[in-house]
Every structure is written in C-alpha cells, then in structure tokens.
Amino acid sequence: MGNTCKKGGKIFSTMLVIVLGIVGAYAQPTAIDVAGQVTGADGMPKRFARVQMEGPGNYVAITNTRGQFSINNVNPGRYVATVTQGDNIQRLPVVIDKGAMPVKITVKW
C-alpha cells in the first residue's frame, strides 16, 4: 500500500508540473515584430533618429533615411516611446499590439 501512495504522489506531481507549464505558456504574450515610422509635424521623415521603447520590455532602434524603424520580438502592451534626434527629445505613449501596425510616431520638430 505504501508503494501505491508513492506512485500516486509522483503521478500527481508530474501532472501538476505539466498543467502549470501549459498555463504559463498561455499566460505569456506573443512577441510581435514591430515596424514604424517617425515623421515631423511637417510630415517629413526623421532620418537617423533614436527610438527607445520602455514598457513591458525595453527596446531601441534607429530610423533609416525614410524615418522607418523595426524592432523584433516586442512584448505587446503600453510603452513610452522616446524619440531623440540631435538636441530634440520627445516622449509619446505608444500601444503595441497586432492591430496597431505599423506604428506611426509624429514629433513636434
């Protein structure tokens, strides 16, 4: 009878680990590849600007000559985007989710 209880306990422990692993896998958000563009108030692209995203994760990218940037494997959620170009700095709220692509950021300068 003692062996039956030990086997039952091992089976229960194994099942618990499996269930917790499955729940943990579903609880984590799916990372998204983010593409976006930074433009000025005049609609012109901001070339070689630094874009830093701070929120559920921290990410940095540099825009290309068309003001475009991309960041791979971004956790969905609410971020503060800090755009820096020379002495110009602006912080803006950004929401990252699959329905919000591409990310459009317009700065005041």
Q: Strand sequence of the main sheet, in spatial order?
A: 3-2-5-6
Oligomer: single chain
Q: How do the SSEs run, as a string of H and E?
A: HEEEEEEE
Count of distinct structural domains: 2
* CATH fold field value of the largest domain: Immunoglobulin-like
The top-level CATH class of the largest domain is Mainly Beta
How far do the termini sit from each other? Answer: 78 Å
Main sheet makeup: 4 strands, antiparallel
Approximately what portion of the residues adopt beta-strand conformation?
Answer: 35-45%
What does this protein structure show overall?
By secondary structure, the chain is of the alpha+beta class. The protein has two domains: 1-30; 32-106, Carboxypeptidase-like, regulatory domain (Immunoglobulin-like), CATH 2.60.40.1120. The chain contains one helix and seven strands, in the order αβββββββ. It has one helix spanning 2-27; strands spanning 32-39, 50-54, 58-62, 68-74, 77-85, 88-96, 103-106. The strands form two sheets. Strands 3-2-5-6 form a four-stranded antiparallel β-sheet, with no helix packed on it. It has a three-stranded mixed β-sheet with strand order 4-1-7, with no helix packed on it. A hairpin with a 3-residue loop joins strand 2 and strand 3 (58-62). The radius of gyration is 22 Å and the shape is elongated. The N and C termini lie far apart (78 Å). The model has no long low-confidence stretch (mean pLDDT 85).
